[in-house]
Structures are given as C-alpha cells and as structure tokens.
Amino acid sequence: MQAIPASRRDISLTAVLIGLAGVMSGCASALFLYLLDAVTTFRERHSFIVYALPLGGFVLGHVYEKMGKPIAGGSELVVTRRAEGGPMIPLRLAPMVLFGTLLTHLFGGSAGREGTGVQMGASLADSTFHKLRIDGSLRQYVLAAGIAAGFGSVFGVPLAGAIFAIELVRGGAREWRLLPATLVAAFIGDRVTIALGAHHASYPKVAAVAITFTLVAQWVLIGSTIGIVALGFIEGIGRIKKFSILTVKRLPFRLAIGGVLIVVAWRLVGSNDYLGIGTSGIGRAFTEPQGPSVFAWKIAFTAITLGTGFIGGEVTPLFFIGATLGSALAHQLGLPIELGAGVGLAAMFGSAAKAPIALTVMAVELMGPAIFPHALLATAVATLVSARRSIYRPTA
Q1: What share of the chain is helix, strand, coil (3-state, %, to 5)?
Q2: How far apart are CA 48 and CA 144, in angstroms?
Q3: Do 31 and 171 belong to one domain?
Q4: CB 253 within 8 A of CB 59
Q5: pLDDT tens across the length of the chain (396 residues)
Q6: 3-class DSSP state for residue 112?
Q7: CA dist 109 to 54, 200, 312, Å?
Q8: Residue 393 lies in a domain
Q9: Model-level pTM?
Q10: Cα–Cα distance, 368 to 377 (Å, whole number)
C-alpha cells in the first residue's frame, strides 16, 4: 500500500524531532557514561562486590520479569521497529536498560554500552514521535536519528554513528536517503555529550604502513580469523541463551545462575580483566602483545553474561576480543601490534554487526586516517567470512 505523502507540518516537526533526538540522546548518554564510570570505579576499588553478582542478577531478573516483557527484545526490538515498523518502542525501555546495564557493570558482568545508547536514543525518539502524531511515513527518519545519536554520542564517533544507523538495517541503497537525518542527530548528540562533561575512551593514533602484496595476504588471513571468531561469538551467545531458557524457565533464576558462573570463572582465571566493560584490557592490546587465551576468556565471560540475560551491549566486549586477537596475530606475523589491535577492534564488531563501513569510519575517527585501508580490507573480509549472521539478527 502506498504511503500518504507527509504534510509540510509533519516534515517540519520531523526535522525538529531529529535535532531533539540528538539532544535527548546526548543528555542520556552523558548521564549513562557518568554513572557507568562511577559504578565501574566502585567495583574496581571494592572487587568483593563481584560475589554479589548472583544476587544482583536475581534482582534484575525479578524487575524485568515484572516490568520488562514489552521491551524484552532490547536492541533486536529496536532493529525490528526500524526495519519493519510496528508498535511504538515503549518509553520505559530507556530507564530500564539504563538501570539494567549499570547493575550488570556494578557487579562485574561482562557487557558493553552501545546497546544502552542505541536503545535509549531510539525509545526516546520514537515515543516523542508518536506523541506529536507525525505522519507514520517519516518514522524511519526519527528512529534512524535516535539510533545514530545514541551510538555516536556513547562512543564519541558521530560520523560512524550516522552510518551505523543505516547499515543496521539491510534495506539496500534506499536506506542512504536517511543519511542527512542521521548525521545531524549524531553530531548534535556528540556535541551535547561532550558539553555536559562526559569523557570517551582515547586510542593511540596509528602510524602509516605501506600496502604490499604480503600485507594484503596477512590482512586476509587476519580478517578471516576474526570473521570465524565473530561467528563463534554470535553462535555461543545464541546457544547459551536457548539452553538457559529451556532449562531454567524463570528469568531471576537464570540470571542468578549466570552470576554464579561468572564468579566461578573470575576466581578460576584469577584476574579482574574480563569483568565489566574491559577498556583497560583494550588499551593494553595496543602496547603489549596479547596471549592467545585473552580473547577466548573474554568471549566466555561475555557469552555467559549476555546469554543468561544480563543487560548491556556487545560492542565493547567485541572491541576487547578484536583488539586482543588482532594484537596477538599481528605479533605473530611481525606487524605493528597497535595496527593489529586497531584493525582487529574494527573488524570484529564490523563483522559481528554487519556494519563494515561504519566500523571502518569509526576506526578512522578513533585512530586516525592511516588505519583506513587496513581496517577496510580486514573488516570486509571478516564480514564476508561471518556470512549473514549478526548480533542484532542472530537467526538471519
């Protein structure tokens, strides 16, 4: 059925709402980043609190069981609404995903932050859109703006955020018509977040390395390895999620068991490196060659955390996995480890999210233009190797 053309009033309101989406997402991201830093610092200073992760999981599961059914899909719900339409994304998604992510990180669950930024941005934008009763044909612009602003402001990468909101949906070339809207929202969101004093992780600038036939072959090898690992990551979370749902029906008990498993793994490894967001581990990957078990442990911690139902994103754990794997492979192949870590960081998430362009751009925004050809090649190869599976559409 052909959509009824939007009125000039609706178009004007949509333009205002795109800017408002940037402002709301920027404010929400600034609050989130401040609180995330606070709970992470507290846990790092009082590591005994990790023992309470099973109890924290039980409380979180109880809250979500009572109030979270309409938002159970999380990022997948946002992607579905963005791609296929449907009912309004509930406004309660924003505060609940904020609460859930902070609780997960406070007690040491291995999760990220992009899911929280994307979900808060999308739910705030979509609920405002519906309240203003704007023509439904313009909803895609507003949802895309919310996603772009949420992603871009959480990581401080507005250009990558604008492209990420487009690549997130496999709608072909027609999706790129949304780019002006996503750019405006992402840049506004990023500026607002910075103006409110939020701090983003910094990464070293990568030095230029000449492209040779040997280097191309090495990036193909590294990209293929990363694509296989990304596929295993997606499959691992999916299998744990299905198994836990089949064997433990109640969410509070699933999360409590997941918490116990994380505590056991934490004591077994004897390190805090795999708890929480893991930015310190990412930083070390750029300066020290990483062992082959580092990325594998992070996969295990993250798969258990997210597979059993804790709240948070996959991006920063994937950055950790990609950076440490890239660092290890670069060291073995005689490449600069900071280059390997940077390329691995981009390629791992780019392949897992099926967003190779956005992550190549993100690598440039974070680590400088010299990384561009290397990140583009490795990310493209990794995306091809990991096929159509995505963390946002795991059954695709």
Answers
A1: 75, 0, 25
A2: 41
A3: yes
A4: no
A5: 334 456 777 777 788 888 888 998 899 889 989 999 999 999 999 999 999 999 999 999 988 888 766 555 566 666 666 656 666 777 777 788 888 899 999 999 998 877 777 778 778 877 877 777 776 777 788 888 888 998 899 889 999 999 998 988 765 667 788 899 999 999 999 999 999 998 888 888 988 999 999 999 999 999 999 999 999 999 999 999 999 999 998 999 999 999 999 999 999 999 999 999 888 889 999 998 898 899 999 999 999 999 998 988 888 899 999 999 999 999 999 999 999 999 999 999 999 989 999 999 999 999 999 999 999 999 999 999 998 788 876 444
A6: strand
A7: 10, 21, 9
A8: no
A9: 0.89
A10: 16
Taking the CB of residue 47, how many other CB atoms lie within 10 A of it? 12
Q: Using only C-alpha atoms, what is the Rg of the chain? A: 20
The amino acid occupying position 345 is L
Q: Number of structural domains, the chain?
A: 2
**Amino acid sitting at position 308:** T
Q: What is the CATH number of the domain that holds 48?
A: 1.10.3080.10
In this structure, what token pair is assigned to residue 235? 């499959």
- CB atoms closer than 10 angstroms to residue 95: 12
Q: What is the DSSP letter of 2?
A: P
